[in-house]
Amino acid sequence: MTVPDAPSPAPVLVTLQLNGEPVSVAVPPHWTLLELLRYRLGLTGTKQGCDKGDCGTCTVRIDGEPQLACLTLAVEVRDRHVETVEGLGVGGEPHPLQEAFARVGAAQCGFCTPGMLMSASAYLDKLTLEDEPVVRREDIAQALAGNLCRCTGYTKILQAVEEVAQVVLDRQRELAESTTEEP
Amino acid sequence: MSAVRDNVSRGRPYAVVGARHGKPDALDAMAGLAKYADDIALPRMLHAKILRSPHAHARIRSIDTSAAEAMEGVHAVVVGAEMPTRYGVIPWTPDEQALAADKVRYVGDGVAAVAAVSEDIAIAACKRIVVDYEVLTPLTTPEAALAHPENKIHEANKHGNITKQVQLAFGDVDAQLANADLVIEGHYGFHGSTHAALEPHCSVAHVDGRGLLTVWSATQVPHYLHRELAKVLEVPTHKIRVIQPQVGGAFGGKSEPFDLEFVAAKLAMKTGRPVKCLYTREEVFLAHRGRHPFEMDYKTGFAEDGKILAVDAKSILDGGAYSSFGLVTTYYSGQLLGSPYVFDSYRFDSTRVYTNKPACGPKRGHGSVQPRFAIEVQLDKAARALDIDPIELRRRNFVGENTTTINEFHIGSSGFLECLDLVEQASTWKARHGKLPRGRGLGVAGSTYISGTNYCIYPTDLPQSGVQICLDRSGRVRVFAGTSDIGQGSSTMLAVVAAEELGVHLDDVRVVAADSDLCPVDLGAYSSRITLMAGNACLSAARDLAGKVRQAVAKKWLCQKRDVILADRRAQRLDDPDVWMDITEAFILAEVEFGTMGSTGSYQTPREDVHGEYRGGTIGASPAYSFTAHIAEVSVDEETGDVRVENIWCAHDCGRALSPVLVEGQIEGSVYMGFGETVMEHHHVMPSGLRTDGKRRDSGPGKEGLLAHSSLLDYRMPTTLDTPNLFAGIVEKPDPRGPFGAKEAGEGPLHSVIPAICNAIFDAVGVRVDELPVTPAKILAGLRAQRSGGA
Amino acid sequence: MLRLPPFALHQPTTVAEAVATLKEFAPDVRVISGGTDLLPNMKLAQTKVSHLVSAKFLDELHGITRTDTHVRIGAATSLQTLAEDEDVRELLPALAYAASRIASPQIRQMGTLGGNISLDTRCRYINQSELWREALGGCLKSHGSECHVVPGGQGCVAALSADTVAPLIAYGAVAEMASVLGPRRAPVQELFQQDGTWHVRIAREELLVAIEIPIPAPQTRVAYRKWSVRQSIDFPLVSVAVRLDVADDVLTGGLVVVSALGPRPRVLTLERLAGSAIDESLAEALGQMVHERARPLPNLPYDAEYRRERMVVEVRRAVRVLAGLPERPLPVPR
After folding, report:
1. Assigned domain for C133 exists
2. Which pLDDT score, from 0 to 100, does residue B2 have?
3. DSSP secondary structure letters along B201-223
C-alpha cells in the first residue's frame, strides 16, 4: 500500500509456475494471489466475488488442489504451480469441461464459471477407476460445495461435470481392458 | 411495425428455434476471455472509493474534504452538493441523489467519494473526510415510520413516510364475501431477500479527447443509466456513451443507476483520467433494491365447489430509504393477482412506506412474489377445508385463454392447465399426495407473470426496443441491439431469431449489444421484456432482409419470392430442395440488387385494448403472460424442525422455447432462487435495539438500521449440497404477440415455488408457516402448538 | 474491493528461525498458516498486525505420524489431509469427520489444524466491516466499551467456532508449542480462556507445532456433531462432541464437549452417569445435562434459543449414533 503515512514494505520477487510457464514478478507482501493475477498479470479470468473466502469465485489450482486466490498471499506461492482458467484448454482446444459447460448451458452469467471449472477439473483429475468405479452426483456436489452459483441452481453444472466424468471413467475402463487383454 | 401480427404459425419446421443449443459465445466465459467491468484496465486509471454514512438517519451539517484532498496520490474528491439533481429510475419519484447532499437515510448512504492512484489511497483518504452529522431518530420498521409522520425521511414527501398507496376494487367484494361458503382469512409475512449476483457492481468512466464521456457499467438498464447520467451530470446524452460489458448476474439488482456510476463519471470529468469504482460485497448488500418485506392481510371467499368469489388484500410494503421502482411494486402487489385464476370480485389496498434501510426494489418476480405466496397458501387452506384436491381446485379457477381479467388485462395464450398436468404427472402426485408417511409431503402452487410491460417507465411514443441487422458478404449476420445480456441469454435469443429468419447457423450471427454508440435503444433487462420485445424487433428487421434476399434469389432463378426459402446456410427452392445456392451467394446477390444490406426493426406494444381504463390500469398490463406450476416435495425432521426440500418440479409455459436449454436454465435458476429465499436467505436489517431475542434495549440513534447479514458468509445462499433436485418442464402455448410465439421465462418460474414448499410442509406435518422465511424454530413451534392443541 | 493492510511477511524454514522471529516482533506478530481466518479478519481490520510469520515452509509442522500410543499431527497439516488420512479415519474418526465438515473444499485444502485451533472467536458484532462496526459504536473486541451480546457485560463473549476443538478435547489431545524458551505442552482442553478478544492461551512468542492425540481404547467411542444452516461453507452454529467410555456395555466415563458457545468450550464429565446402559435414556440424560449446563448466547448470527434446542438434539443424536441406535426417532404416525 502506498499510503504516505503507512509505507509499504518493499515488494518481494516471487517465482512461480503459472499455467505451465515460469513467471517472476515483484509483488508487495500484502497482495493476494488474486490481485497479482488480475491487476498485475492481466489474467482477469479469475474473478472476485466476495474477497474473503465465502464464495469460491476466485478458485485457482495450486499444485493441483483447488484453493482461493483471494486468501492466498502472492509471495506464499513461491515455487508452486498455479493454474488458472486461462490455462485450462490445451493446444487451442477447449478442455472437455469447457466444452460440456458450453453445450449443456452450465454457464449463464459466467462469473462463477472459472472457479467452478477449476474445482471441477481438480475433481476430474483425481477420478480413478479403482477408487470410484461409478460417477456419483453427490461426489461432484461435494467437490463443488465451495463454489456458489446464483444463476443455474447447479443443475446443469452438475450435469456437465457428470458427463465428462463418465467419459473419463469409460476411457480408463477401456484402457484397463485393453492392457489386460494384451499379455 | 406490426406488433400484433401472427408470428406463430409457419408451414415448415424450425431450423434453429427450439433446437438444443447452448450460447454461441459461451466459450469466452469458459476461457476467462469475457470482459466484465472490473476486468477493464485503462492507462492512468484512478480508483474511486465512496465514503458511507454510519448513521441510519442524519442531517449533514458540513463535509470537510481538505485532509483527503491534501493526501499524496489523491486526485479529486466529490461530494453530493456537486451533483444535487434528484433522480429516480421512475421519473415520477425522483428522490435520490448521486451522493447524499443534505441528509443520509440509511447506514451506507454515500456522502463523498475520492479518486486516487490506488484503491488503498482512496480508502485511506475517505477516512480523512470529516462529516458533521446531526443525528436524527431512525425509523427502521414500517410501523414506526407510519406512527411518526412528523419525522419525515424525505421532507418533500406529501404524506408523512408513505411513498405510495394504491387502492383498487373490482366487483362487489363485500357482497361476494357475504355469499361465500368459505372464507379463508390470514396474515402473511414475507421477509426481505436480495439478488446477490456473484459479480459486485463495478463502473469505469473516461472522458476522451472529444469530450465524450464513456461509462462502462455492470448494469442491466444501460438506457436508463444513460438518461440519468445526462440529467445528474448535466451533460447532453449525445456526449455520453454507455457500454454494458459482460455482466455477472443481476436479477433486478442492477436495474437502476447507482452511486458508483455517477461517482466514476464525475471523477473522470474532474480529473481527466479514467476512473474505476468497484463495490465491496458489503456495498452490494447496501445497494440492495431487493425483495420488499410485505405484511399482508388476505381474506378470500370461496363457493362450495372451490370457485374463488372474492379476494380482499391489504399489504404494507417496507420500502427502505428510497422509492426505486416502488411505485410499480405497489401496483404489482395487487395488479398481478388477477391471473391465473378468475375472481368474481377483488380489491387491494397496498401502502409502501419509507424506512431508514437499504432501498428495496425489483428482485426477480418484482412485486408479485409476495402476494402470490399469500394467495396460494390460502388456496391450499381452502382445498383442505372443502376437501378438494389442491390441483383440482386450481383447475376449477383457471382464468382461461384469450380472455380479459377482472382488472382488464388481456390474456392471450395460457398453458396453465398443461403446467398443472405436467407437474402432477412428473411428481406422481395422484399416487402420493396425502398418502406419504408423516414427515414427508407434497405441495402445489401456480402463478403467472408478465412478458414486459405495455408502457415504458417514462412517457413516450418511441419504440420500446430497436434492432439493426446487417448482412455481410461473407455470409455472416450482424445484429446490433441495446439489449442487456446479464447471463439470461438475450444475445443468444437475438441470434436465434436472426438465424432462423435468415437461414444461417447460430454461429454465423454476431450480436453487438448494449453500447449506446453502436446500438439502437432497448429499455433494458427488466420485467421479463426482452424476448418478446427485442425478439419481435429483431424478427421484424430479419424478415425485411430475408425478403430482399429471397427476392434477389428469385430474380436469378426466375421464380416467385415466395418459392425461395432460406435455411441451413442455403437459399433453396421451396418445391425443389435440389435447387439451392450457398447463403453467402444469396447475400451477395441481394447486395448487388439492393446495395448494402441493412435494416432496422422496432417493437412498440399494441395500443388498443390492452389495459384497464382506470388510474393505474396500465401497470401490470403486458402483451403476453407466462404461466407456471410448481410441486415441491419436502421431508420434515420433527426433532430438529429441519425442512429438507427433496424435489421441486416446475412446469412453465413460455409460449415457445426459442432455446430450450436456456429456458430450462431460467427455470432451474428461478426455482433455486425461490427455494433459497424460502428456507435460508434473509436480507435482514436490525430494528431498534440490536438484541434479536425480542427484548428491547436502549439504543442510541445510529445504532439501529444495521444489516445483519452483509457478506456471502452470513447471507446464506444455498450451495450444491443444499439444493434440491430440480425438474424443469417446458410447456409451449405460443402467443401470437411473441416472436415465434415466445413469452417470458426468466421470472415467472420463481413465484409459486415458495407457497409450494410451504404447502408441502403442511402436507408433511400439518404445520402452517405463514411468516417467511421457513426456519426450524418455526416448525418446532408449530409442532408444539399442534400437540398442545390435542392434534 | 477489500484490501489487506500492509505488513511484513517472514518465511522461516526452521522452527528455531520462526520462534526467533516471533520473539523479535511480539506482540505485534501473528503466525499465518492457511490464512483463511487471519486474512479475512485483517481485510476487515478486525485483526491489526505488522508482522506475519509464515508456517508454510516449516517442514516440521507438516504431516501425520502414528506411534503405538499416539497420533501426532503437525500444526500446519491441511484440514483436507487430516480428513482423508487413513490413520486418523481409523483411530480418530470423529476428528476426521469434524475436519471434513469445515467450511468448503478449498478452505480445507488451505486451512490447517493449527489454524483451526487458533481460529479467532466469532460474533455477529465483530465479523463485520469497519463501517458496520463504526455504525455500531464498537464493542469490547472492536474499538468500543460495550458488549451487545450481554448488555452490561465486562468480558467479550465471542464464540470459539473451530470445528476440531470439541473432538480434540474429547480425544484428550495435547498441544505442543515452541518458543525461544523451549517446548511447552498443554492439553487442548486448557488452551482456551474466557476472553473473546483473545481466547487462545498460546503466547504471541509461541508457535503451535503439533497436536498429539492418544489412541483411544477400543471401548471408547467419540462422535462429533455440527449444525449450520448450510451443508457447506458455514461455521458451526452448534458444535458438540460426545465421548463415551464403555466397559461391559455400560458407561464408565466420558465427556460432552460443547463449543460455539462463548470463547471457551464447555466440558462436562460423565462420571456420575457411570453404570448407565448405552441406550436412548442415556441420550435423553446427556441432552438434559447440556440443556442445564450449556447455553448458547446471541453472539453467533442465528437465533440463540433455537441453537440451544438444537444443541440438545445434536447431543442426543451423538449418543444414539454411538449406541448404534437410529439417529432420528421414528415419526409420530398420522
Report:
1. no
2. 33
3. PEEEEEE-TT--EEEEE--S-HH
Q: Nearest CA to C29 among C5, C57, C10, C56?
A: C10
pLDDT in tens, B562-574: 999 999 999 999 9
DSSP 3-state percent helix, strand, coil across chain C (nearest 5): 30, 25, 45
Give the single-character DSSP code of A164.
H
Interface chains of chain C (3 or more CB pairs under 8 Å): A, B
C232 reaches A (C-beta below 8 A): yes
pLDDT of residue B609: 59
- Concatenating the DSSP letter of every residue in B269-322 gives HHHSS-EEEE--HHHHHHH---BPPEEEEEEEEE-TTS-EEEEEEEEEEEEESS
Q: Whole-angstrom Cα distance, residue C28 to residue A30?
A: 16
Using a CB-CB cut-off of 8 Å, the residues of chain B touching A145 are 719-721
Q: Residue B89 carries which side chain, given as an amino acid letter?
A: V
C305 touches chain B (CB under 8 A): yes
Residue of A nearest to B669 (CA): A152
Task: Indicate if C69 and C189 belong to the same structural domain.
Answer: yes
ipTM of predicted assembly, 2 dp: 0.97
Q: Does A32 touch chain C (CB under 8 A)?
A: yes
Instruction: Give how many domains chain C has, as a whole number.
Output: 3
CB contact under 8 A, C131 and B52: yes
Ordered domains of chain B (ranges, CATH): 26-34+462-603 (3.30.365.10), 43-365 (3.30.365.10)
The answer to whether the pTM exceeds 0.90 is yes
Of A1, A52, A72, the CB nearest to C2: A52
Q: How far is CA B343 from CA A67, B168, B265, B628, C43, in A?
A: 55, 14, 50, 18, 55
Instruction: Write the CB contacts of B98 (distance below 8 Å, at least 6 apart in sequence).
Output: B80, B83, B87, B110, B232, B259, B262, B263, B266
Do A150 and B34 count as a contact with CB atoms less than 8 A apart? Answer: no
pLDDT of B790 reads: 55
DSSP E strand stretches across chain C: 8-10, 29-32, 51-54, 64-66, 70-74, 174-179, 182-187, 207-214, 220-227, 238-247, 250-259, 266-269
Half-sphere exposure of B63 (CA within 13 A, CB side): 27
Is residue A30 within 8 A of residue C5, CB to CB? The reply is yes
Domains and CATH numbers, chain A: 12-87 (3.10.20.30), 96-181 (1.10.150.120)
Query: Neighbours of A (≥3 Cβ pairs closer than 8 A)?
Result: B, C
pLDDT band of B687, cuts 50, 70, 90: confident
Residue-range definition of the domain harbouring residue C50: 8-56
Cβ separation A71–C35 shorter than 8 A: yes
As a whole number of Å, the end-to-end CA separation of chain C is 54
Average predicted confidence (pLDDT) for chain B: 95
CB contact under 8 A, C230 and B716: yes
Q: What per-residue confidence (pLDDT) applies to C328?
A: 83
Residue C279 sits in the same domain as residue C178:
no
Contact (CB, 8 A) for B275 and B115 = yes
Q: Please report how the helices A96-104 and A155-181 are oriented relative to each other, as an axis angle in degrees rounded to 10.
A: 140
Read off the pLDDT band of C333 (50, 70, 90). Answer: low
Q: How far is CA C94 from CA C89, C165, C173, in A?
A: 8, 11, 13
C1, B278 contact by CB (below 8 A): yes
B 239-268 near A (Cβ less than 8 A): 246-251
* C257: DSSP letter: E
- Cis geometry, peptide bond prior to residue B340 (ω within 30 degrees of 0): yes
| Dist. CA B24–CA B510, nearest whole Å | 9
Interface list for B 583-642 with A (CB within 8 A) = none
Q: From CA A27, how far away is CA A10, in angstroms rounded?
A: 8
Q: Which of C128, C231, C309 sits opposite B719 (nearest CB)?
A: C231
Question: Which residues in chain B touch residue A54, judged by CB atoms under 8 angstroms apart?
Answer: 281, 711-713
Q: Which three cell numbers stand for residue B351?
A: 401502502
